[in-house]
Amino acid sequence: MRLTGIIDYTMDNFLCVRGFASMLELSEISKPDKNIQRDLIEGHRGEMEAFLSDGKFTFFPEVILGVNMKGSENDIDKINCFREEIYAEKVLKKVTINNIKYTVKKHLVKKQNNNLAYDIIQTIIMEFDKSSIIGKEFIRIDGNHRLSAVSKSSSYANKRIPYCLLLFRDDTETDKFCRAIFYNINTKQIPLKMEQNLKVIIESEQVFNDEILKSDPSFGFHYFLTRQIIKKIDLANYPFAKMLIEKSKFTYFVEVVGLLLEHKLIKKNDESIHTILNTVSEINEALHSAALVDIPQNLAIIGAFTYYILSDKCKADKFLKWVKKNHLMDIAELHICDVIDIYDKIYNNSTKKIFMSMWFNKKTEDTYKEVEDVKEILSKNYNEKIEIIKVDKHKDGYSDSITKRIMEGINNCDLFIADLSYGNKNVHHEIGYAQGRGKKILLLYHIRDGIEPSNDIGSNLSMYDQLRFNTYGELRKCLVEKLKDYFSL
Question: Considering the entire predicted model, what is its pTM?
Fold first, then answer.
C-alpha cells in the first residue's frame, strides 16, 4: 500500500500529510474511533450509496485521518528526529517507523517576481503492508460515513478523494488530539444553514433543471415540487403562515413535501402543487384561530400540522390545542417526524370521543343502546377508551346553552355519528356543522318496511360513509368493524 502527498506543519502545530487516494484504500486502512464516532445508520446506507454512486455532484471536503506513529519505545527517537527534520526542511533519508516506510523529498519552487527566492515543498511517500497495521489502523476523525459506505463492489470504490493524515507521536497524543479535533470540526465552524443551501439549489434552474431535481438521488421529486410551489405562492396572502414560514420557506416545503410523498398523502404530479397551496390557506386560518403566531420559526410544529391537515383534519384540530396547552411553541429544536411520533402515541392512548347525533325518542332507544354496547366491546377487546357525547334535550326551539353544548361536543369529537332513520331536522343541522368542521362522519339508517331511505337521507349526504341495517344485531356487528377501521384498531 502506498500513500503519497505533501507533508508540512499546519499552524506550526500538527504535522500532516495531504494527498489523494481511492475511497476503498482509505476505507480499508482506517476505522472509526468508537469513543468519538458513530457508525453509519443502516437505514441511511442506501441514501449514501445512491449519493456516492451518482457522481454528478459528489464533491466533499477531505477525509481527515490520524495515525499513531509509535509502535514501541524504540520508535521515540526516530519520531522526534523525523518531525524535527521536516520542520527544519532538511533533506531527509528514508526511515521506517512502526512498519511504515517514510520517504520525503524536498522541492524548490521559485517565488513569483523573485528569481533568487524559493518556496520549499516537501512531498512524502508512505509505504506499508495492509496486514502490518491490522489492529492499529488509522483513526477516522472526519468523513467516517463516507468511508463506511464503501465496499469492493461499490461503483465508486476506486474514485480518488482528498485526505488529510495527521501524524501523532504516541497513544496519549492520538487520543487527546483526535477528540479535540473532532470536537472543533463539529462545533467551532459555522455551517451554511440548510435554508441557504436549499435556496441555492432550487433557484439555480440553469444548473439544476427540473429533470435533475426529479431524478438525481442528491435531490428528489420533493425538490421539484418545492421549486414550483415557491414560484406560485405569495406568502403575503397568508400573513399568519408567513410569520412562521417565510424565513425558512425552502426548508419547510422540502421537508414537508418529502414527508407527504413518503406517506402517500400527495402524488408525484402537478396536482400536488395545488394541494399544498390550498393547505397553506387552511394553515393560515387555523393559526389565526388558534393564536399560535408566537412560535419562533418552529418548522416542526407547522410541518406536523400540515401533515395532519392532509391525513386527518380532526387530529389536526386537536394537535394545535395540544401544542398550545403544552407550550411546545417555546421549544425551537424539534423535528417534524419526532413531533408526529410523539403526538400519535399520545393520541392513540387518549379517550376517543364520539358525538351522537339522533332523534332521542323511544323509537331510537335500541339504536343508541347498540352504540353503547359497541363502545363496551371495543373497551373490553381492544382496550380502547371511548366517550359518547350525548346531547338529548332537543326541543322544538334551541336554547343558547344547548346550542353551545352541541357545538363544543362536535368541535371536540373524533368521530361524528348521525342517525338519519327518522329524518330529524336537528340531525341534519348538526351534520352540516360537523361537515364545516371537517369531522369524520358516519351515517346510520334503520331500514324499515314501506319507508324509502331517500325520504330521510338527502342526496347531498351520499358522499358520507353510511351503515344501513335491518336488524340491531346487524348494526352491532357492522358498527364494531366500522369503529375498528376509524380508530385503526
Answer: 0.53
